[in-house]
Amino acid sequence: MHIVTTIPEMQARVRLWKQVGLRIAFVPTMGNLHAGHLDLVQAAREAADRVVVSIFVNPLQFDEAEDFAAYPRTLEADLAKLAECGVDAVFTPAEETLYPQGRQDITFVEVPGLGEILEGAHRPGHFRGVTTVVAKLFHIVQPEVAVFGEKDFQQLLIVRRMVADLDFPVTILARPTVREADGLAMSSRNRRLDPGQRRIATALYRVLRETAEALRRGGEPAALERAAMARLEAAGFRPEYVAIRAAADLGPPRPGTPGVVLGAARLGSVRLIDNVQIETVTE
Ligand code: PAF
Predict the structure, then answer these.
(1) Catalytic: which of 34, 37, 122, 139?
(2) Superfamily holding 188-276
(3) pTM across the whole model
(4) Which atom of ligand 1 is nearest to the CA of 188?
(5) Each residue of 200-223: pLDDT tens digit?
(6) How far apart are the first and last CA of the chain?
(7) In the chain, how many H helices and how many E strands?
(8) How many CA atoms lie within 13 A of 249 on its CB side?
(9) Any residues with Cβ below 6 Å from ligand 1, and which?
(10) What sections of 85-179 are H helices per DSSP?
């Protein structure tokens, strides 16, 4: 497995592979890898001839300095897991390598509308940071395929929109959320939960799932959202939103089309997000 820290070295490796007709699948990550990431890597292996994984804790997408500082950095353990999965190259640049001009007054990539609601409204600048770094990484790695998890459902839609709007020659593959045995979506932030918070955390998925079921039975979306917020609060969360939306564009739910229930809630300083998809919103 090649461990690459510079842009010219990554580009040279990609060029060598492309010259002999090999296709590249890419998994961007911020490290602290868990089974959810390894599932994305497995999907990448099945989708192309060579797999590149990036590990970069992207400062541009953190709206809270404290969250950026606390983000777990476990490079050695991550590299061992990726080597075991048969990854071909890991791109792990320093901040100065990706952002030599600093974090401000640089060119940003931004998806308006979709990037400003839900997560975007609660975390100003977050999606601009995500799309900027993903666009840069796509230019450097030049993958034919890139794999993203459905846990970050809004991020997935935004990356797809960016790829369509900017004509990136990349196919975006989505993988379902990988969960702990009790349903909690796997996330690097879970390890910051204390044992009491960890017990409460499982309620997020349960409430979203039951909200989706109630919608299927014909419940009224706004009333279901309010009830879900109250249930999360009663469980010990500080809920930020529960939203029932159309799965295609996160607009209002449209009967007869796929929907999604999304939620974000805090337990102490840890912010959790999750979602449950609905095959068809009831007529
Ligand atoms: O989903 C993530 O881990 C990050 O948002 C990503 C896509 C690696 C960009 O930094």
Answers:
(1) 37
(2) Pantoate-beta-alanine ligase, C-terminal domain (3.30.1300.10)
(3) 0.97
(4) 3
(5) 999 999 999 999 999 999 999 999
(6) 52
(7) 10, 9
(8) 6
(9) 28-30, 58, 61, 130, 133-134, 152, 155
(10) 95-98, 119-122, 126-141, 153-165
